[in-house]
């Protein structure tokens, strides 16, 4: 199987700039990034994000801001075509549709909004532009970035066996501080805390030639612990949950 960075590599085969731009990309679903026999949903969505980002490279809106996806049918481990169509371009955002097609059937429909993200190393503005930009640690919405516990001090986690081939290509370590907060809430009196469940983990790709990319966000989001999994760790004494 190819590294994830290489597996997310649709190639441009057709482009039209008359009127609203339209681009067509093709590729083959990598057989390693599957769950059972079906391509992993986050990986498939990453293909659509990557194709859309490539189509926006020469525009003023290069960064995906919001994605809505509809999986109409299961995808397959075979060739695919992605059609990217610009619907509207404004001063701050561009709206695109990106659809994945296999054997003439549309498998995934997406609507993607592109804009401009601030650079990671850009200095903070002198005046805060949002009341939620600087949330104090005592606020219920506060999320520490980076986490309180360094990854070398966080216990490594094993991925679920359902992830098959690629479960050894991805490593994670959950922050024990966050899980401890869940257990504190479990034993506390009602009304003495903000409720809810929290989860946080360090993730990395194990391959030597891997590179992180924005198009991988759907993949990591899809393999992250879901609510039943967190509930099983807090309430079910870590009984495995699907």
TrEMBL record:
- Superkingdom as given in the UniProt entry: Eukaryota
All copies of domain Acyl-CoA thioesterase-like N-terminal HotDog, residue ranges: 30-114
Q: Which SUPFAM superfamilies match?
A: Thioesterase/thiol ester dehydrase-isomerase
Q: Pfam families attached here?
A: 4HBT_3
InterPro entries attached to this UniProt entry? Acyl-CoA_hotdog (IPR042171), HotDog_dom_sf (IPR029069), Sec_Metab_Biosynth-Assoc (IPR052389), TesB_ACOT8-like_N (IPR049449)
What is the official name of this protein in its record? Acyl-CoA thioesterase-like N-terminal HotDog domain-containing protein
Tell me the organism.
Answer: Rhizoctonia solani
